[in-house]
């Protein structure tokens, strides 16, 4: 039996080769509108990579970092972070459906929080759809709490660094 080998790698949507790879990966993941809705609520279906990139990864609007999780060289997870005024915004966490419930979300969150700490984050913020109970439970395990800010379509969660 072959051992599972997981690696984390930073990618950039500004690099042509990374864009080419991520377009194929994301098109595969987001064939299912439910998967897209849980990852990027409010993003319209069918998935359009160029629109995704222009909204979330436009270097003229925001500076962000993205980490992918690989299993034996194949991308099976994705997460991004953006820092604004010492507040880190975590977004677009996704684990391929065949690899969920193995602690990989925690692995990715720990990696992105460590990255945030290295660039000066004092607070982490993220949004989760109310129907995505698994994600909400994951974030609560990692000491995120629901914020007082209410949204009809999302639960806002915060974690402060001590």
Describe the structure.
This protein is α+β, with helices and mostly antiparallel strands. It has one domain (6-124): 3-Layer(aba) Sandwich (Aminopeptidase), CATH 3.40.630.30. Helices cover 33% and strands 32% of the residues. It has helices spanning 16-29, 33-39, 49-56, 104-118, 133-141; strands spanning 6-11, 64-71, 74-84, 87-95, 123-128, 145-150, 155-160. The protein has a 7-stranded mixed beta sheet, covered by helices on one side. The model has no long low-confidence stretch (mean pLDDT 90).
Query: Do you know the CATH architecture?
Result: 3-Layer(aba) Sandwich
**Beta-strand level of the residues, as a percent range?**
25-35%
What about the largest sheet? 7 strands, mixed
Mean pLDDT: 90
Which structural class is indicated by helix and strand composition? alpha+beta
Based on CA atoms alone, the radius of gyration comes out at 15 Å
**Secondary structure: helix percent:** 25-40%
How many discrete domains? 1
Count of alpha/pi helices: 5
